[in-house]
Amino acid sequence: MAVPKRRMSKSNSRKRRSHNSIKVSKPTYCPQCGTASPSHAICPHCGFYQGRTIVDTED
User: Fold this and answer.
1) Residue 31 and residue 48 in contact, taking contact as beta carbons nearer than 8 Å
2) Is the distance from CB of 58 to CB of 49 less than 8 angstroms?
3) Which long-range contacts does 31-35 make (Cβ < 8 Å, 24+ apart)?
4) Which residue(s) pair with 48 in the sheet?
5) Taking Cα atoms as reference points, which of 23, 25, 30, 28 lies closest to residue 48?
6) How far is CA 37 from CA 15, 19, 47, 54, in A?
7) Which stretches does UniProt call biased (Basic residues) (predicted)?
8) What is the tens place of the pLDDT at every residue in 36-52?
9) pLDDT in tens, 20-29
């Protein structure tokens, strides 16, 4: 069984794990009304998703 020869320092462990952090997702903009919304989700303002109206909103 493989065993490390020396103990890994805290700084080296933290450098290795630096890419595991959660990144903030960028909002996408609705092509119909221009409102920012999360990606792969129905627009909360107009109900538009993937080229068609999914939810009818009362304007």
Assistant:
1) yes
2) no
3) none
4) 53
5) 30
6) 33, 26, 11, 15
7) 1-20
8) 888 888 888 888 888 77
9) 988 888 888 8
Closest by CA to 43, choosing from 28, 58, 21, 23, is 28
Structure tokens at 56: 């009818």
Q: Tell me the residue type at 4.
A: P
Quickly tell me which residue has 């999360």 as its tokens. Answer: 38
Cα 20 to Cα 11: distance, rounded to the nearest angstrom: 15
Residue carrying the six token digits 């909360």 = 44
The answer to whether 2 and 16 have CB atoms below 8 angstroms apart is no
Joined tokens for residue 25: 């997702």
Alpha helices, H only, the chain: 10-16
Tokens of 13: 């462990």
